[in-house]
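pls design
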């Protein structure tokens, strides 16, 4: 079931519950054990739990995306903005056009050339998921350039002495925090994708179950009131 469906998942689930309620009121309705009303209720419960789990995974993914965006772009010491300070610090410590300045300037240029694809908050289509993969690669590339800047600075003589407010330890902590934020997004996306697949698989079972229920109703009651009540219900 695609996220763009005109009928929401909650509405589809409610229709399955309505079918179960109707079947419970049919006199003498007794399908085979594998398709009993108890099995139907168990499947509805499983689908409901899978849907709740997916919603929790979606929220976790969205929060992880927001946190990563902040770490990369939206505060003074983010991956995008900190290099401006680093360039100024390198110039102050070693001089403009020094070897250190030229090295850091080139690395900063490469970082700024990296482009990030904007992704939807809850990608459910194949095209949207491809955008997420491309976006993650962009963030990974940007993080790689940022790491290269830190690694280059680690080779500069007396950096910690010259820049006590921007020591190697401080830079490495910021790098590791950003790496953790990026990893959290990828982990959350993987968990969301697995939960989405699980809900879809269970939904397909539920849809098949309802189709079979309709068949059992028609075979028992014929084209009468019972059949008319549920034959038009679609989930």
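designed seq:
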């Amino acid at each position: 079931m695609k996220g763009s469906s005109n009928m929401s998942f909650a509405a589809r689930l409610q229709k399955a519950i309505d079918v179960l309620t109707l079947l419970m009121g049919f006199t003498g309705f007794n399908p085979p054990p594998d398709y009993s009303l108890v099995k139907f209720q168990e499947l509805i419960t499983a689908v409901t739990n899978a849907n709740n789990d997916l919603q929790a995974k979606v929220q976790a993914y969205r929060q992880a995306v927001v946190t990563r965006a902040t770490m990369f772009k939206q505060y003074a010491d983010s991956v995008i903005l900190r290099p401006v300070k680093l360039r100024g610090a390198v110039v102050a410590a070693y001089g403009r056009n020094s070897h250190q300045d030229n090295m850091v300037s080139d690395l900063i240029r490469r970082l700024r050339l990296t482009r990030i694809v904007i992704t939807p908050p809850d990608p459910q289509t194949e095209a949207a998921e491809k955008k997420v993969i491309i976006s993650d690669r962009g963030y990974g590339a940007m993080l790689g350039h940022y790491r290269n800047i830190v690694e280059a600075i680690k080779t500069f003589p007396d950096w910690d002495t010259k820049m006590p407010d921007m020591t190697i330890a401080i830079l490495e902590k910021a790098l590791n925090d950003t790496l953790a934020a990026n990893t959290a997004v990828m982990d959350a996306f993987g968990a969301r994708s697995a939960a989405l697949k699980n809900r879809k698989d269970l939904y397909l079972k539920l849809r098949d179950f309802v189709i079979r229920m309709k068949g059992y109703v028609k075979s028992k009651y014929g084209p009468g009131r019972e059949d008319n009540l549920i034959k038009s219900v679609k989930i």
